[in-house]
């Protein structure tokens, strides 16, 4: 059975699926007289139109950047011609070479123009340097202030700690004096020297706790003075009661013993002043050592031992009892 071939495109038919279209060549198209007049008029209008501030600034910036990026001197400028007349050559330096060996690597003359720094603000000449100076001074002042504050804080903490330690040692010294006074009272067969303070000279007390006794007597005298002032409003100066109790007579300062004690309180005591000038720690240690040597009493153990060996006591200092 014979097959019938499919009809294909004939020579007279066009194949639009594979057809290509070429772009018209506009360059070869001749400009007409009307088009030329319009173009010339448009260019003239663009040239005559005043440029805006932004456009002028952009052109100025572009020119400036081009000039700054080119370190070479423009040979067409008047400056180059003047330097050339003075012997300047491109790549060389102006002026006399002051180096010892003439043209040497140590030549410090400039070979390129001094760079230009554009001023963007409206400040006067030197304003930038003044601002930098003030900024640098402000930074230094702030650094010094922070450093001073830190030092002051450290000093304050150290001073506070030192003051607390001083108060603690003063308290220990006061406690040691009271212990020494009590032990002395026990040696005096239990007699209370505080009740009969006016019958004993102040200088007879040991200087280690004499200040404690003197301060007590001063407080007593101040109390008597206040009492005298109160009683002077209700008593006559010549009033004398033979039946008056001894304590009242002492309070009214009519006893010679009281007058003698008052006189002694006003006298200078060089030994007590010299001892009082010592550091609280030194005064405390002296009293504590006297307690150990004289009464075998350990201030840190709060105990009195039977003999000088003081067996069981860790040591003589506060650190030994920690």
From TrEMBL:
Region feature (Disordered): 1-76, 91-150, 233-255
Q: Where is the composition biased (Basic and acidic residues)?
A: 41-76, 104-150
Q: Which residues form the G-patch domain?
A: 75-130
> Which Pfam family is one of those matched by this entry?
DUF4187
What InterPro entries is this protein classified in?
DUF4187, G_patch_dom, GPATCH11
PANTHER family per the UniProt record, alphabetical: G PATCH DOMAIN-CONTAINING PROTEIN 11
User: What is this protein's name?
Assistant: G-patch domain-containing protein
